[in-house]
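Exercise 7. Given the encoded structure of a 102-residue chain, write a plausible sequence.
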């Protein structure tokens, strides 16, 4: 949760609302009238998070998802709909990057 909080802080000036959420989503927030979810995928837990998120999807609710990972090598194993980007946290510093094409 602490790692997800660092991400939220990067957007805090624009955030209209935020709240903790339930597994696998850690934090939900509203920014620029759009819903966002922060999902942490620990290294080695990609399959279980993929399944949990697929089972958690609600067709009436579509949020943009920011996926927090431990290592860039995880990206190829993550299958989460509406992912807008990936990031890694290191000592409170967040490095953002987009999903590679292909």
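Solution.
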């Amino acid at each position: 949760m602490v790692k997800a909080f660092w991400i939220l802080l990067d957007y805090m000036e624009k955030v209209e609302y935020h709240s903790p959420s339930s597994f696998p989503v850690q934090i939900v927030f509203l920014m620029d009238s759009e819903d966002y979810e922060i999902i942490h995928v620990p290294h080695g837990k990609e399959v279980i998070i993929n399944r949990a998120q697929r089972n958690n999807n609600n067709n009436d609710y579509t949020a943009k998802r920011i996926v927090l990972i431990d290592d860039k090598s995880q990206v190829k194993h993550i299958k989460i709909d509406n992912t807008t980007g990936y990031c890694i946290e290191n000592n409170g510093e967040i490095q953002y990057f987009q999903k590679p094409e292909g």
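Remark. The radius of gyration is 13 Å. Students should compare their own answers with the one above.
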